[in-house]
Amino acid sequence: MGEGQRFDPATVMNLARQLSRKAYVPPPNDLPDVFSNLNYDQYVAIKSQRQPIWNADGRGIAVEPLHRGFVFSNAIDLFLVEDGVVRRVTYDPAQFDYGRLALPANLGDVGFSGFRLVANSGDGKPFDFAIIQGATFFRAIARGQNFGAIARALTLKPADPKGEEFPVFRAFWLERPAIGSNSITVHGVLDSESTSGAIRMTFRPGDMTIVDVETTLFPRVTIDHVGLGGIASTYFYGPNDRSNVDDIRPSVYESSGLQMLNGKGEWLWRPLQNPNTLQISAFVDQAPKGFGLLQRDRSFEVFQDDDQRFDRRPSLWIEPLGEWDQGSVQLLEIPTDAEINDNILTYWRPKAPMTAGSEVPFAYRQYWCWTPPERPPLATVVTTRVGRGSVGRRRRFAVEFSTEALGENPPQDVKSVLTVGPGSFHNLRLWSYPERKAVRVGFELDPGNENACEMRLILEAGGKPISETWLYRWTP
C-alpha cells in the first residue's frame, strides 16, 4: 500500500497476514559505516533542519522522521495518509544537520529509524510527547515530564535460555489529524521469526497522554511465551537496595514499583529491586483489571539529580480492553551495574499458547501519567526501607503506608498482618503518625538458610483491609 493508493486499514491487516505465510527475512544490514559506528552523543547531534510534517497546518499534532544510526539500525517504511491517499515520506540528506560527521558523496537513501510526535496545543508551548523507534519499542510522556519507561508492542520469550526474540516494525501509515485535533492514529506492521502482526495506535497527548493499542498477531509457529502490554524501565538503587553504592544521589530509578489490580479487585504493590541474580516473578491471575510500572516518588529530594530528574519520569498504567483470560503478570528484575540499562521488564503472559496459523487479537489502553486515573481507595505504600538486622543474616524492614484516613482521626484498631515463607519474622511493630497521615510497620526478616523469602503485608482495621497489599521477595 504505497504512494498514491487509497488507504484502507484492512489492507494493513492483510499485509501482516500475508507476511506470516512467508519465511521470515531479517531486516537488511545496510546502514553505512558513518552511521553504524556512532556513539550516543554523535547520534543525537543529528538534527532535522525542517519543520515537522503538518506543523504549519494547524493540525494539533506534527510528525518528525528520525534518522538511522547508533543502535537504531533498522529501516522502516514511513507513509502519510492525507485525504484517504497514501503518500510516502522520502529520505533527503538535506533535511538533516549532521554536525561534524563527514558524509560520503554517494550517500543514497539511508531511510528512517522511526518518528517523533509533537503536540501543538495552541498555548505556544509544543512538546514532544511520543517517540516510536527501535525494535517494537515506543515511549510517551505527559506534559511536563521527561522520557523514561519504554513500552513494547510485543515481547517474545524474554529470559529464554535460547535468547529473547525481538520483533521489529516494518512500516507505518500515519493518518493526518483533523484540524485542531488532539489525536493521531498510527497503523503499523511488525514482524519476527515467530510471528507477524498488525497494530493500530491512537495517541491523545495532554496532562495525561492516553494511547489505545489494538494488535492482531499471525503466528508462523506455536508460541508459548508471549508478552502483551510490555513495559521496560530502570531501577538502579533506592532505600530498599543500596548495597555497594557510592554516589551523591540517595536514589536512582525511573520506576519505584509494580502496581497491579487483579481480577478479584485486590490492589497489589511490589517495590522494584536491582538484585544480585536474575529474578523472575509471576503473579497468576484471570481477567486482570490493570497493571503498570509507577513512579510514585515525585519529590526532587528523593533523587537529588539535577540532570536526570527521575521525579519527572512517567508512570505507565495498562488497562485491558476486553477481557483477558488466564495468565500472569510477569516481572523480570535483571542485575545491573549501570543506570543506563533497562533492567526491569513487566508484561502480561497469557496461559494459553498462540498456535501457528491462528489470528490473535488483543487491545489495551495506556496511561502515561503522573498518577494513574484509577488508584487504590486504600492506604498506599510510600516507602520501603531495608537494612541490616540485629544478628546474623537478619534484615530489617520499614514499610510506610499513607492515606487521608490515617490523618486526624485514624482508626484505633489498625493492625499489620504479615506473612513470610520460607523464613520467619520477628519484632513486628506498628507506629501511627497522624501528622503525616501515615502508619509505619517495622519488622526483622530471618531467612535462616534460605536464599529467597516471599513476604506479604497488609493493614487491617475492623477486620477489613485498609491498605493495598505489599509484596516483596528478599534475596541475598
Mean pLDDT: 95
The assigned structural class equals mainly beta
Count the DSSP helices.
4
Strand-residue proportion: 35-45%
Low-confidence stretches: none
> Which percent bin holds the helix content?
under 10%
Can you describe what's shown?
A hairpin with a 3-residue loop joins β12 (184-191) and β13 (195-204). The chain is globular, with a radius of gyration of 24 Å. Helix content is 5%, strand content 44%. The chain has 4 helices and 33 strands. With 476 residues, it is mainly β. The chain has a 15-stranded mixed sheet that branches. Strands 2, 6, 7, 8, 9, 10, 15, 20, 23 and 24 form a 10-stranded antiparallel sheet that branches. The longest helix is centred in the N-terminal third of the chain and has 12 residues, at 9-20. The protein folds into 2 domains: 9-369, Beta-galactosidase, Chain A, domain 5, CATH 2.70.98.10; 380-474, Sandwich (Immunoglobulin-like).
